[in-house]
Design a protein that fits this description.
Layout: E1 2-5, E2 11-17, E3 22-26, H1 37-45, E4 49-53, H2 70-83, E5 89-94, H3 96-107, E6 113-119, H4 138-150, H5 152-158, H6 160-163, H7 175-187, H8 190-202, H9 206-211, E7 216-221, H10 233-239, E8 243-248, H11 255-258, H12 260-272
Parallel strand pairs: 3-4, 3-5, 5-6, 6-7, 7-8
Antiparallel strand pairs: 1-2, 2-4
């Protein structure tokens, strides 16, 4: 079990496998590095060095009382990449992890990053406001907070249905995937998960997107019921200086798991291009 002791004393759990050009994976809320199994094994077998960490308060990392916001998340990644001396890296983020990626690259990782991939990611900003009228109403996030505080055991089962599109007619529901989501979620801190809702829903990544000039691949499912693609992936790609957008009809939020073969193929083509 690999743990990095951060400057503030927190311990960050990470996996580091293989050799070659490094690919760093950033997980979504409220999961862990284990959510990248389908990508870690695929790219490891393609000759890449694959790295994934549990965000603070998530998985096997320290359950801290502070630091559950994007500035600290990105700074933690910076410490990890410096510790591992990663250069020419590709950073890949899903959902909340996509926000973490673009903020890390802009604030800390310009000299260490070759390319980035945002999958079903939260940028530019999720919450509805006067400046973002087609965003998601704050009441949705208030409900996520309420359910996380008072009904987490059941909520972390219920949310897997829209997350993976298992509530759609004819869906191939896999209970093992649902149980694994629940397992990863319940490993983490209830406080971290509660506070992270604000981080993923209210952080404005617009300036990060505008500032980053490395190639960035944006992937988003058109049936994403968690992060609506028109207000996320489509807008992000337009803000990026060197962005490429691929959207997938019918694909859900959790498409790195349910549609791993397609997602992995498109990422590999982007990395090798």
């Amino acid at each position: 079990m690999s743990l990095l002791k951060l400057r503030d004393g927190a311990e960050l759990y990470y996996k580091d496998l293989g050799e070659g050009q490094p690919i760093v994976f950033h997980h979504g809320w409220p999961l862990s590095a284990d959510d990248w199994d389908a990508q870690m094994i695929f790219f490891l077998q393609k000759g890449y060095r694959v790295i994934a960490h549990d965000r603070r308060g998530h998985g096997r990392s320290s359950q801290t009382t502070k630091g559950h916001e994007m500035e600290t998340y990105a700074a933690d990644v910076a410490e990890l990449t410096e510790f591992l001396d990663l250069k020419d890296a590709i950073h890949i983020g899903h959902s909340t992890g996509g926000g973490e990626v673009i903020h890390y690259v802009n604030k800390h990782g310009r000299d260490r990053t070759a390319k980035a991939v945002l999958i079903s990611a939260v940028p530019p900003i999720m919450v509805q406001s006067e400046n973002n009228p087609d965003g998601v109403p704050i009441s949705v996030f208030d409900n996520i907070r309420e359910q996380t505080l008072n009904n987490r055991n059941q909520f972390y089962i219920d949310i897997t249905f829209p997350f993976y599109g298992y509530n759609r007619e004819g869906a191939d529901v896999k209970e093992g995937i649902q149980r694994n989501w629940w397992r990863m979620g319940m490993m983490g801190s209830i406080l971290a998960h509660y506070e992270c809702v604000k981080a993923f829903s209210e952080t404005d990544f617009t300036e990060d997107l505008k500032a980053v000039d490395i190639p960035v691949l944006v992937l988003h499912g058109e049936d994403d019921q968690i992060v609506p693609y028109q207000n996320a992936g489509v807008k992000s790609a337009k803000l990026l200086k060197n962005g490429k957008l691929i959207t997938y009809p019918g694909f859900p939020h959790g498409m790195p798991t349910t549609e791993a073969a397609t997602i992995n193929k498109d990422i590999l083509e982007f990395i090798q291009s």
